[in-house]
Amino acid sequence: MWIEGNYRRNLMDMHIDDWNEEFLTKINCEEYVEALKDAGVQAAMVKAKPHTGLCYYPTSIGRMHKGLHGKDFLGEMIQRCHEAGIAVEVYFTQVFDNWAYENHPEWRTVGPDGKNFREYRNGGNFKTGRYGIVCPNNEGYREYVKENLQELNRNYQFEGMFLDMTFWPDICYCPSCRKKYLEETGRELPRTLRWDRKEFREFVYLREKWMADYAKFATAAIKEINPEVTVEHQFSMITSPWINASSELLMEAVDYAGGDYYGGFLQQSFINKYYKNVSPALPFIYHTSRCDPELVFHTTTKTKEELLLHVMTALVHNGAFLLVDAINPDGSIVPEVYHGLMKEVYSITRRYESYVSGAFNHNAAIWFASHAKYDPDENGVDTCDKSFDRKIYMDAPVAASSILRSTNLPYEVIGSRNLEGERAEVIILSNVAAIREEEMDALEAYVKRGGNLYVSGPIGNPRLEKLLGVKVLGKTGHQFTYLSPTKEGEEIFEKFSRKVPLTIPMAQYELEIVDENEITVLATQTLPYTMTGTEEFAAIHSNPPGIYTDQPGVIRKMAGPSTLIWSAAPIELSKPYWSRQVFYNIIRSLCGKLVFESNAPKYVEVINWNKEGRNYFALLNQQEEAPIVPVYDIYVEVEGAGKTAKELVSGKVLKTEILGDRTRILIDKLELFMLFEVE
Ligand SMILES: [Zn+2]
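Above: query sequence and zinc ion SMILES. Below: predicted holo structure tokens.
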């Protein structure tokens, strides 16, 4: 595939309307492609159809953007890019299509409150009145997508397509969705969130399947004309709640994973690991904006150091970097971004491209469960009143990853498709509310092979309860609780004791032990003197511990060769250092020898991989706020005495010390990043 070795990419964001005669009249393809070429860009994502639905190419379907005055922007860009040796990915929007919305009212999505999308004002989640949203379950709309995609593929030659917006911004109650649901289940679409009912959970999964089926339909329309063209569907909504129906099933419709993110480096590191592991082929693509921090800040640009670190973080995960730039409404760009900034960035990063790819060496793997992106406590809520906020399903695994990064415990982030073959010593199920049967099959196989599990909060499948020898009863009434270590849990709970228990600022799951065999209780639940949320108190400002229960809070279960640890709440979400340390101690207890050890400070990530028999390391100085300051005196320790280490590209030999049967590699000063090889 053309994507191999293609790490430097670009997209010019241009969802520009045409009510003003000036709009897009200053587009200059020559200047634009010259800029990309000078910067060393290897692939350009070129807009064909943006969210306005106004085409940037002559079309027999829909209409062209008026500002182009018939000019074939797409055709000219493809020709110029190819002449410059730049691959082209054609951008095409789905679901978000204002032209389709205006011209085909029957295709519109219908929100839980009966509204079409342009009827909303000043709301979140695209409910601004700007976006016309149509439903991919509508057969007429599907035909329109197919005709559009096939027209593009017949009229132009290019390497790949990016199909944006493969999600519903809200639950759709349009006639097509209602009919489809009725036909498939015999029921009306639900109006209330009922996570305690299988029927509702299956409805949520069905929407994820529908979205993936639609994505496969669009991909097939392209491949029918040009089987060689690669297809990428927008995957960034994978971190959004269940409402958007974006799940790992989308990976069945793409050649590789790609999506745009505007958070910091911790978020990038988490999502890059996940993409690397679920993408059918590599490199995956990490998109982020030139604008700081996101496109809304059209006129601000990230620093060179920030961009360098974004590119290098993606690269060491075997990901391509795609800079999302934003065109001015008149069609002009800022060419200096390419002739200066991006040229400098890519001229540095391109020297490291030949060293990446290969498997990460790791001890732990965090499972990001894409079919469980909900809060089971949001129960009985009307679908009009549901929350779009990112919640515990995302915060807990990201918090786990933050702790593992800061303690230098080698880790990965995996998807459902990786569970069964996973080689880590421990898989972390950080507040996974639901585990599907096929996922449970994979987890059972992993445990049977001797893998360990850490499970926090809900136990998402009765088979996992059985494995743990417990039965979940419910949750504590108290919303502020404690974990008191038992004698057996003293070591793991380090700075905490029965008298000074670990604080959990939320309710805990309650369970009964049904099979005491091989179970050790490491902590019990302790509750405040008074019920939280009432006017009664023991201490006026706080909820000190007062009721010591026998209710298990943390248990360890031996299952053949495996050890399973369950915690009644996600300890990893804790803010205090010593509480986070308890999570580390639990995970460390489930790992044998670590593949490397390091004293790197919390924001420096150490990554280790093997490629073609060679052992590589990367150190990334992921400070979230510019300017990024250097870090001194870091070591990385590896197994084996008398190893040598040399910096990549420069070949500079690093100082080493022999410590018994181990070698310590010394890094005097780390600026932004460093890659080295150990022999
Ligand atoms: Zn619909």
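Residues 529 and 636 are 47 Å apart (CA to CA).
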